[in-house]
């Protein structure tokens, strides 16, 4: 009887050391179980020839096609006479040339006769303006051989995510070797859930996803495996939510007649209904004796900082301290400046002229001078400072708080898990946590990535905000449009307003090294200079001569950055040429125009963020997206989408559809690669929502999963150590 390998058995034992080494290096597959969960990307039908018409250039592809023609050419090379085999394959919709050189000619010349069908794998390249595969790997598909049909599982041929080192059919053969082990797969779904929803058993689903006989088999398998991924992730998040409710925290309630009331009384405007509603949700959470974990997301300019500041003042009223963590020094300084301006004398606690109920608002960043830093640390440990705003410098060991009650994390996705956890560990008891993001997140992403946080949404802009007109400037097709863009900047400055020009890179010596490596085509003279330092110089001596222009980028000294931002905010500069260092939080209401150079190099959400820096005052905003890309390209379509709507939630959906989930659940969020293989958070909203409900109910009844050993095993496998720590820390 044939040996069935265990699921945790190293692939080396089942497949041999050479294949196992390639599997580990190329695909991060180490055990029999890993390989069983490496699902086909798609399936080719035995009678169907895969479309060759739209093959992607420079990508590794696997195609099923028929040989139309094969010819050997003899040529004179530097090493004497040589041979080249050219094979043309077709699928009816298009033709593709394969080329083999030298000693590699003989076998394919014998195998690839006209009429032969085969699978071919290789990297698509361009030669003489024609697509080709040079020295592709191939596997013959002999239609008259029943044995060959069996090897490829009957009617459907699985095409696996592959690499240049490991072709799809080699992966398929490796899967064949371990597929009998699927019978031992431990089912994470409770029987009642699986039966109630009519889902296949896990061993059956694994067999069907790898070796389907019909398309219905694939659908059955995918439906079941999507549930596994959604349910296991939601159980992990539900356990995290449940554990949080068991932690103690100090209830923080505003005091009537305290600093919050005094702040509200001096506000020169009325809060929006949305701000009031979200504030109530936050205040209700702060009043409980377990830590708040809330995500505050909202449109660019919807007033999230105002909501967060009121929550911080409520905590100060209750005798605690509040810390706001910002991702960059520019943003920390901007927040500190705007908070102290909004609070006025209420931010001058202990100072001459400070109000009776005032507190101290301190800034703490890594570049502060020794004396200022020492004073800030002293104000924190004594409790003199009720509010502190800072960068990651806040989480250093030497930073001590008197009584940390609330942590506000701005732009949460820019912080590592350990950083957030370190700050939360500085309270006597776990502090309340408010996470803010200015990138609107579709509901499904919020449920999947931030499923451990309660969510508040600000989708209403404050009164007085102006509309922003956005236009694409096709610099390559219509260079006069770019000329007109600079004229528009001059016109805005002529009206007493200011403008931003955003570039994707800095342009200093570090940049020059990268530039040297860029292709000659990329650096063609017709291309506008795309670096801050180059663009600023061109504008000073060209279309914007006579205007007051300054640069801002991440490698400047913090004091210089702060000085430039202060001068721009004070109206002493007309145009700020910057990198994306201005992407979030920068607030200069007098800035009305923004020109984004090479806009196609930025993501949808990033463009929306950048655009949100204009139109913050009473005058309408203008955002010009400059691009060299041809109109029909996906990059230009992305820019057209940004120009067509100001709805951040709609744009985030478009962004997600283009980027898929790897980025959403991958390193940026959790510190580990995405574990999603068949679940797509944009398309499987119903599965995710239903899995969340089921997971919440199960964890409420059995928080330790004592009655669900299979589920515990799946948690250990899917949520490896790094991801588990991420979920523990939030």
Description of the molecule:
It is built from 28 helices and 21 strands. Strands 11-12-10-13-14-9-15 form a 7-stranded parallel β-sheet, with helices on both faces. It has a 6-stranded parallel β-sheet with strand order 16-21-20-17-19-18, sandwiched between helices. A 5-stranded mixed β-barrel has the order 2-3-4-6-5. α8 packs across α9 and α9 crosses α26. The longest helix is centred in the first third of the chain and has 32 residues. 44% of the residues are buried.
CATH topology of the domain at 468-645: Rossmann fold
Number of continuous helical runs: 28
Q: Strand fraction band? A: 15-25%
**CA-based gyration radius:** 30 Å
In brief:
By secondary structure, the protein is of the alpha/beta class. The chain contains 28 helices and 21 strands.
Primary descriptors:
single chain; alpha/beta; Rossmann fold; seven-stranded parallel sheet; six-stranded parallel sheet; 28 helices; disordered C terminus
How are the secondary structure elements laid out?
Elements (H helix, E strand, L loop, with lengths): L10 H5 L1 H11 L4 H5 L5 E4 L14 E18 L2 E11 L4 E7 L4 H6 L5 E11 L2 E5 L2 E4 L5 H6 L4 E4 L8 H11 L12 H6 L5 H9 L4 H32 L12 H7 L7 H14 L6 E6 L5 H14 L3 E5 L3 H15 L16 E5 L5 H13 L2 E6 L13 E7 L6 H8 L7 E6 L5 H7 L4 E5 L9 E7 L4 H16 L3 E5 L6 H9 L14 H10 L7 E4 L5 H12 L5 E4 L12 E6 L7 H8 L9 E7 L6 H11 L3 H12 L1 H5 L1 H4 L14 H17 L7 H10 L2 H9 L1
Parallel strand pairs: 4-6, 9-14, 9-15, 10-12, 10-13, 11-12, 13-14, 16-21, 17-19, 17-20, 18-19, 20-21
Antiparallel strand pairs: 1-8, 2-3, 2-5, 3-4, 5-6, 5-7
Helix pairs in contact: 8-9, 9-26, 9-27, 10-12, 11-12, 13-20, 16-26
């Amino acid at each position: 009887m044939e040996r069935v390998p265990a699921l945790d058995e190293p692939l080396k034992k089942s497949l041999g050391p050479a294949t196992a080494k390639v599997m580990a290096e190329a695909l991060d597959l180490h055990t029999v179980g890993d390989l069983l969960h490496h699902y086909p990307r798609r399936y080719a039908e035995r009678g169907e020839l895969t479309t060759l018409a739209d093959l992607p250039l420079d990508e590794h592809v696997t195609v099923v096609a028929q040989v139309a023609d094969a010819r050997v050419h003899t040529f004179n090379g530097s090493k004497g006479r040589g041979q080249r085999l050219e094979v043309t394959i077709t699928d009816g919709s298009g033709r593709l040339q394969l080329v083999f050189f030298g000693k590699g000619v003989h076998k394919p010349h014998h195998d690839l006769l006209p009429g032969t069908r085969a699978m071919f794998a290789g990297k698509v390249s361009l030669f003489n303006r024609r697509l080709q595969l040079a020295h592709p790997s191939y596997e013959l598909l002999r239609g008259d051989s029943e044995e060959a049909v069996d090897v490829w599982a009957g009617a459907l041929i699985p095409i696996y995510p592959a690499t240049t080192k490991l072709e799809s059919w080699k992966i398929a053969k490796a899967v064949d070797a371990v597929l009998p082990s699927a019978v031992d797969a431990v089912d994470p779904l409770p029987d009642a859930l699986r039966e109630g929803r009519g889902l296949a058993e896990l061993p059956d689903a694994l067999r069907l996803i790898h070796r389907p006989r019909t398309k219905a088999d694939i659908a059955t398998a995918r439906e079941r495996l999507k549930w596994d991924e959604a349910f296991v992730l939601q159980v992990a998040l539900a356990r995290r939510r449940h554990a949080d409710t068991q932690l103690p925290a100090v209830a923080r309630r505003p005091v009537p007649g305290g600093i919050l009331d005094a702040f509200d009384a001096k506000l020169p405007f009325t809060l929006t209904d949305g701000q009031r509603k979200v504030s109530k949700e936050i205040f209700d959470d702060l009043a409980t004796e377990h830590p708040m974990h809330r995500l505050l997301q909202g449109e660019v300019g919807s007033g999230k900082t105002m909501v967060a500041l009121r929550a911080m003042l409520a905590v100060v009223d209750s005798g605690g301290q509040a810390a706001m963590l910002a991702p960059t020094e520019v943003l920390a300084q901007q927040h500190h400046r705007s908070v102290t301006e909004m609070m006025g004398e209420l931010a001058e606690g202990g100072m001459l002229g400070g109000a009776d109920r005032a507190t101290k608002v301190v800034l703490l960043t890594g570049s502060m001078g020794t004396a200022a830093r020492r004073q800030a640390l002293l104000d924190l440990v004594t409790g003199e400072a009720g509010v502190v705003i800072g960068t990651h410098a806040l989480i250093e060991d030497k930073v001590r708080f008197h009584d940390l009650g609330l942590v506000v994390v701005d732009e949460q996705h820019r912080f590592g898990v350990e950083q957030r956890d370190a700050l939360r560990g500085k309270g006597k008891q776990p502090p309340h946590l408010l996470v803010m993001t200015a990138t609107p997140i579709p509901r499904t992403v919020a449920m999947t990535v931030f499923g451990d946080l309660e969510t508040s949404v600000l989708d209403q802009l404050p009164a007085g905000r102006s509309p922003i007109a956005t236009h694409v400037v096709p610099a390559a097709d219509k260079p006069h449009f770019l000329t007109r863009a600079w004229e528009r900047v001059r016109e805005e400055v002529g009206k007493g307003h200011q403008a931003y020009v955003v570039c994707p890179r800095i342009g200093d010596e570090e940049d020059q090294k990268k530039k040297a490596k860029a292709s000659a085509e990329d650096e063609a003279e017709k291309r506008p200079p795309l670096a801050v330092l180059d663009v600023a110089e061109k504008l000073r001596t060209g279309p914007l001569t006579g205007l007051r222009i300054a640069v801002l980028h991440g490698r400047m000294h913090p004091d210089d950055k702060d000085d430039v931002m202060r001068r721009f905010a004070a109206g002493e500069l007309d145009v700020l040429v910057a990198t994306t260092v201005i992407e979030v939080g920068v607030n200069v209401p007098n800035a009305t125009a923004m020109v984004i150079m090479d806009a196609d190099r930025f993501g949808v959400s990033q463009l929306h963020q950048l655009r949100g820096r204009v139109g913050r005052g009473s005058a309408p905003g203008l955002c010009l997206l400059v691009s060299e890309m041809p109109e029909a390209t996906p990059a230009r379509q992305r820019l057209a989408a940004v120009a067509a709507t100001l709805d951040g939630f709609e744009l985030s959906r478009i962004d997600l559809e283009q980027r898929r989930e790897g980025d959403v659940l991958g390193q940026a969020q959790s510190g580990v690669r995405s574990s999603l293989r068949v679940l797509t958070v944009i398309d499987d909203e119903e599965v995710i929502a239903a899995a969340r409900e089921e997971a919440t109910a199960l964890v409420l009844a059995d928080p330790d999963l004592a009655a669900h050993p299979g589920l515990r095993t799946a948690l250990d496998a899917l949520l490896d150590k790094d991801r588990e720590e991420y979920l523990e820390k939030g």
